[in-house]
């Protein structure tokens, strides 16, 4: 078994580029981190760590059902992929998924969240295969009515999506079911795909029938939609999923709303909160070097990501904090944060607010790597382009002009890294500006505009003609 694990680990590291790991939110260092049952690991920042306890997971009680839910929830939107054997694109690495879910189960994680649209439609099936190997009563399963990109919002089409989720996830009931991405497309679309077509009434009846145990919604966007759903006293929401992290707490941008307001509204109604994007799509685990150093000065042994997870778990109204974990080392680092869990001190809360304010000054593109913009009809790897750009911003490798002190070093790092992480035919130069992706971005990134900006920057670097950048 050990020999098999070592061979599997080597193959995993060979076929996953370092930049792709960085894009997922952590740097995998050392060896022996991707096997079946490692007892020790290395944190994303390379700090040596000891065994992970199996009996220290923090649990929160669902006040409506009495269920004990692990504070760490497994978000299944960023499963690892690998090339298909026939060369026709990518598929989910099922063996890696099985290993991570087994490890999570052994260490107390019992909440698993997926969707019909995650990993370009492959997540539910892969998650269902992995979870079906465990007793159904050992975990809570969450999925969604993800009808954002349907050609028609008719009830029959939505019901077909709902029924297909049961088949893919190999279950006859959902512990938690969500109306997905409420408000992302604006008020009119919200009404069309949630209210006018009868899908809200349908899911309420499914809850009454027992096929849905807890009914909720996830919020991305128009605050009018959020407030409207909470005003519906006839629905009696069992939970609501919101984006919460120490930046969005008071400094939300794009389609997001300050989490302080969102959680406050849920608290008034005693509705448990499920937290998404505690790392802002990995951005808060890969802070600019200066900000990362400030955190390390206070807690040298802690990973950067652990700060964000401790913040997200602080409010008592939080039922579980979802993490879209791609690799075993992500899971192991998060387990160390929540097993056992240490709440933030007042001094640490003040520091994180200072970090948040400073972070807002950096020219980061607010991509959360959710991949809702994919697939691009022209084959552009939008998330990886934006992630590479942000990585270079964090590391000081986006020079403002040729006169910058580290210009030659930064120029090489950006261009070499760009070619390594994004194949030439999938780079920003191939963007046509069709804007099919923009409406689907929960962060409201003007993707076409960013593609043009990055392409111009790349060309200026290649020609060694970089003028002063704004």
What's the quick description here?
The chain is α/β, with parallel strands linked by helices and 470 residues long. The protein contains 17 helices and twelve strands.
Count the beta strands.
12
Our count of helices gives 17
Largest sheet: spatial strand order = 3-6-7-8-9-10-11-12
Instruction: Report the average pLDDT across residues.
Output: 86
What class do helices, strands and sheet pairing give? Answer: alpha/beta
Q: Please tell me what the overall shape is.
A: globular
The protein's oligomeric status is single chain
Radius of gyration: 22 Å
Write the element-wise H/E pattern from the N-terminal end onward.
HHEEEEEHEHEHEHHEHEHHEHHEHHHHH
Unreliable stretches (pLDDT < 50, length at least 5) are 1-48
- Beta-strand share of residues: 5-15%
Profile the largest sheet.
8 strands, parallel, barrel
Helix content: 40-55%
Distance, first to last CA: 55 Å
How does this model look, in words?
There is one protein chain. With 470 residues, the protein is of the alpha/beta class. 40% of the residues lie in helices and 12% in strands. The protein is built from 17 helices and 12 strands. The protein has helices at residues 2-15, 18-23, 94-106, 123-131, 155-169, 187-195, 199-209, 223-231, 248-251, 259-268, 289-298, 304-312, 328-338, 346-359, 382-394, 407-421, 447-462, and strands at residues 59-61, 68-70, 72-75, 81-83, 90-92, 111-113, 140-145, 174-182, 212-219, 239-243, 273-276, 318-323. The strands form 3 sheets. It has an 8-stranded parallel barrel, surrounded by 5 helices. A two-stranded antiparallel sheet has the order 1-2. A two-stranded antiparallel sheet has the order 4-5. A hairpin with a 6-residue loop joins strand 1 (59-61) and strand 2 (68-70). Helix 3 (94-106) packs across helix 4 (123-131), helix 4 (123-131) runs parallel beside helix 5 (155-169) and helix 15 crosses helix 17. The longest helix has 16 residues, at 447-462. The chain is globular, with a radius of gyration of 22 Å.
């Amino acid at each position: 078994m050990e020999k098999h694990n070592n061979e599997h680990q080597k193959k995993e590291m060979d076929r996953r580029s370092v930049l792709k790991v960085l894009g997922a939110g952590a740097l995998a260092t050392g060896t022996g981190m991707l096997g079946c049952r490692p007892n020790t690991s290395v944190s994303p920042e390379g700090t040596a760590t000891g065994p992970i306890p199996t009996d220290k997971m923090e649990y929160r009680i669902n006040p409506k059902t009495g269920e004990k839910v692990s504070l760490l929830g497994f978000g299944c939107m960023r499963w690892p992929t690998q090339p298909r054997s026939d060369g026709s694109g990518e598929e989910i690495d099922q063996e890696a998924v099985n290993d991570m879910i087994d490890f999570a189960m052994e260490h107390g994680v019992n909440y698993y969240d997926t969707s019909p649209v995650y990993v370009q439609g492959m997540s539910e099936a892969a998650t269902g295969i992995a979870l079906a190997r465990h007793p159904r009563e050992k975990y809570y399963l969450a999925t969604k009515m993800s009808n954002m990109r349907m050609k028609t919002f008719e009830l029959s089409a939505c019901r077909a999506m709902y029924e297909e989720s049961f088949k893919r996830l190999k279950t006859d009931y959902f512990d938690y079911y969500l109306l997905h991405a409420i408000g992302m497309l604006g008020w009119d679309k919200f009404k069309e795909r949630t209210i006018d077509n009868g899908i809200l009434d349908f899911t309420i009846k499914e809850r009454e029938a027992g096929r849905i145990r807890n009914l909720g919604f996830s919020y991305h966007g128009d605050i009018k939609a959020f407030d409207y759903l909470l005003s519906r006293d006839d629905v009696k929401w069992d939970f609501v999923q919101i984006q919460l992290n120490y930046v969005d707490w008071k400094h939300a941008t794009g389609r997001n709303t300050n989490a302080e307001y969102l959680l406050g509204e849920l608290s008034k109604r005693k509705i448990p909160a499920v937290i998404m994007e505690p790392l802002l799509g990995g951005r808060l685990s890969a802070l600019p070097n200066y900000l990362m150093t400030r955190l390390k000065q206070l807690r040298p042994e802690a990973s950067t990501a652990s700060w964000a997870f401790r913040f997200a778990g602080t409010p008592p109204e939080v039922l579980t904090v979802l993490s879209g974990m791609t690799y075993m080392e992500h899971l192991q680092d998060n387990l160390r944060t929540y097993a056992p869990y240490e709440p933030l001190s007042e001094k640490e809360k003040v520091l994180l607010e200072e970090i948040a304010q400073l972070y807002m000054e950096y020219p980061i593109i607010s991509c959360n790597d959710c991949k809702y913009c994919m697939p691009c009809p022209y084959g552009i790897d939008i998330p990886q382009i934006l992630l590479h750009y942000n990585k270079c911003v964090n590391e000081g490798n986006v020079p403002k002009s040729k006169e910058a002190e580290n210009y030659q070093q930064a120029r090489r790092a950006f261009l070499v890294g760009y070619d390594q992480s994004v194949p030439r035919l999938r780079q920003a130069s191939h963007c046509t500006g069709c804007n099919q992706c923009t409406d689907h971005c929960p962060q409201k990134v003007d993707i076409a505009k960013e593609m043009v900006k990055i392409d111009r920057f790349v060309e200026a670097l290649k020609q060694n003609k970089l003028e002063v950048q704004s």
